[in-house]
Amino acid sequence: MDVSICLSEHSQIPWYEQLYRYIRTEIESGRISSGTKLPSIRSLADSLRISKTTAETAYQQLLAEGYIESRPRRGYFTMPVETSLAPHDAVGSPVETTSGQSAPTIDIDFHPSRIDSKNFPFALWKSLFNELLNQRDCRMLDYGAVEGEWGLRRELAKYLHYSRGVRCGPEQIVIGNGIQYCIGVIRTLLNEYPMVAAMENPGYHRVRAILEHSGVPIRPIRLDHDGLDIDQLCETDANIVYVTPSHQFPKGMVMPYYKRMLLLRWAQAVNGFIIEDDYDSEFRYGERPIPSLQGLDQRDSVIYIGTFSKAFTPAIRMNYMVLPPPLLARFKSMSQGFDCPVSRIQQNVMEMFITRGFWDRHIRRFRRIYRGKHQDMLHALRMIMEDHVVVSGIGAGLHVALLVRTILTERDLTERAARVGVRIYTGNDTRIGPSNDLPYVYLGFGALERTEMEEGLRRLKNVWFDD
Ligand SMILES: Cc1ncc(COP(=O)(O)O)c(C=O)c1O
Questions:
Q1: Residue 430 Cβ < 6 Å to ligand 1
Q2: Is the CB of residue 244 below 6 angstroms from any atom belonging to ligand 1?
């Protein structure tokens, strides 16, 4: 196929991004169907009269976000839109397969980030909102503090201390609207520091995308059975590392204490920083959690990031980071350059929710709900999938990882699943480079009832193994 786009020389948007956005929109709208071979980097560069680096950067971005895949010696191919881990995927949307046939509507979605919305405390949240608005406090209608509301930050400092061993004062906490915002702020704070970022491979694709987007070179680091391979990290020129030590995303292992100490020693040796993403540690179903890296750090080298997306809802778009003192000083000196992206009304409602004890109750309640769903999922996998899959990454969070014993590719598995109305997520979304492993599938269970999990797994078994 040809890519016919007229790149604007007068736009502020760089060419690679114009190209990336154009192809992405074509894929999302279905104008380029899944499985289409894209032009090679060289021919795209020639036909558009751009450099190969520009074309390659656009493709890398599409790869990172799961819109295309690279097949060894064959080139770049578009992926079915439903396999991307885009957060805005909606259940109930029709899907098109590579054969061009319309597949059934997706009615069972194993997205790892979906939560149990049936049990969401709608009435309570609404009443706190009403209560705040009824106070008619006019200050609430002004701009808030750049770092976020003081009361919420104070409550978070206490919560993080007793739940995760994080040691910080409220002044170190910055409220944001998601991890991509926080990474953007960190990038700005370190703008005089030639940043080279290491990350787990496979790892969280949305962090990789934002780092790549801001021009940070990435060094993918393989995983051992217990998390990041520190020896490989030490061989790189990275000076910042992004990790999910308490529940590796997506594979699910927990980084043991000795490895956390090695990682902290690495940061000290290279005078670097560790970004600790502690996204779902509220939900552990087995052994006691290991304290956060931040709590073990003696040298101010950890930037801790947490979120309300798993424990409450991603729709609230609220998260937080804890800056070590050197970066806090920098944040203060650059504060004109930032603006808190979260509504102060919403932040104040959350403060009320925490101060009045509803937050702890909410976590206890949801831990019970998710523990039940986690057991249901493991039971259903044992009964339905038997030894067709090897399950890992269990004991925490809202998803499990499956190694699938099959000769099918991840792409085949996804397509077959879509044919029977099931949406799954594969290693392809999170991996940098090719894999020699059997295919990996990640199944979220947070939003599903037991009967839906069982029905979904039965359909998968039929289309994956019984053909
Ligand atoms: C690994 C990981 N980190 C962080 C988050 C939360 O991101 P955010 O706070 O931007 O919603 C998620 C959500 O799914 C995640 O999977």
A1: no
A2: yes
Q: Count CA atoms closer than 13 A to 322's CA, side-chain side.
A: 30
Pocket test for ligand 1, best of 181, 249, 282 (most atoms within 8 A of CB): 249
238 DSSP assignment: -
Domains present along the chain, CATH in parentheses: 15-79 (1.10.10.10), 95-118+361-465 (3.90.1150.10), 143-356 (3.40.640.10)
d(CA 95, CA 415): 10
- Which pTM was predicted? 0.80
Give 466's contacts (C-beta < 8 A, 6+ positions apart): none
Query: Which residues, listed in sequence order, are joined to residue 241 by a DSSP beta bridge?
Result: 198, 274
Pocket test for ligand 1, best of 113, 210, 317, 442 (most atoms within 8 A of CB): 113
Q: Is the CB of 279 under 6 A from ligand 1?
A: yes
d(CA 242, CA 205): 11
Q: Give me the pLDDT at residue 467, please.
A: 64
pLDDT tens, position by position, 202-231: 999 999 999 998 899 999 999 999 999 999
For the ranges 98-112, 228-242, 282-296, 445-459, the lowest mean pLDDT is seen at 98-112
Query: Residue whose CA is closest, atom 5 of ligand 1?
Result: 279
- Helix 325-333, helix 179-189: angle, nearest 10: 80
Q: 183-204, pLDDT tens digit by residue?
A: 999 999 998 888 999 999 999 9
Question: With 0-12 CB in 10 A as exposed, 13-18 as middle and 19+ as buried, what is 375?
Answer: middle
Q: How far is the CA of 308 from the centre of ligand 1 (A)?
A: 9
Residue with CA closest to ligand 1 atom 2: 279
